[in-house]
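Ticket #4471: structure output looks truncated?

Reporter: J.K.
Steps to reproduce: submitted the chain below (103 residues) through the standard prediction queue, then opened the result file.
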Amino acid sequence: MKDKTYRFSLWARCPEGGKSTLEVSFVDNATMGEDQRFATVNVEVSGKEWKKYTATLTSPQTEPKGALRIFLAGDKATTDVEHIPRHSPTCTLACSDSPEAAS
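Returned output as attached by the reporter:
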């Protein structure tokens, strides 16, 4: 929903050490525009131990069929992610999420 702030959290680690960047975005998969993203935040992951990471995204538009997309960006160390809930103060975003372990 437009102007709503969503709290995002996940547990992540770089099991071989190092660091990585996860790009977390709300996207409109149905758009024919050049960029499907309409809200994005980067989450910096580092260390071999599991840690909880949090971020917030504020949606600039209402998109009832928006999706949550997570990409490994920047430094591309092997990254494990789990437990990806999403919370909203007053509304629900219809989105799909699937933990990705990328290398």
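Triage note (M.O.): checked the attachment and the full token line is present. Residues 88-103 have pLDDT under 50 and may be disordered.
Status: closed, working as intended.
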